[in-house]
Amino acid sequence: MIATTDLATQVYQVFIKASSEKIWQAITTPEVSARYFHGARIEAGPERYVSHGPDGATWGDGPVLEFDPPRRLVHEWRSMYDPDMAAEQPSRVTWEIEPQEGGYCKLTLTHDKLDGAPKTAQSVSGPGWMFVLSGLKTLMETGASLTESGLPAGTAA
């Protein structure tokens, strides 16, 4: 994965052996996102991006700025799961899915407009987004999340 070190504009890229449609479904569907995004049940449609934690609490809610399935999703980001971060200005997340020859896609995630959200910027930088994207890649390629064994029930690792 490639990551930038500038906290105000963070860019991450990963190659995933999956179709753009499958990746799109994973980033916009609550049943799938809960398996790789810290338990967050994310619903993204043409107008709103809403994220709920495992307990049902709202972790994020904001407008969708661009909705072009299965290529590009741009939405506002507010870290509502933490009072200090919730008080910061909203930032923006852009998901770009580019099919490549060979049956895989390049996923580029850009989290920007973080100048008015320094605590959010620090929280999502490096391991924050890297864990989410690694979890997404693992789930798409193996069918199991990073925290699931991927082994049949009753099988020891």
TrEMBL record:
Transmembrane annotation, as ranges: none
InterPro entries noted in UniProt: ASHA1/2-like_C (IPR013538), START-like_dom_sf (IPR023393)
SUPFAM superfamilies according to UniProt: Bet v1-like (SSF55961)
Domain Activator of Hsp90 ATPase homologue 1/2-like C-terminal: 17-141
Family to which the UniProt record says this protein belongs: Belongs to the AHA1 family.
Name recorded for this polypeptide: ATPase
Source organism (scientific name): Actinacidiphila oryziradicis
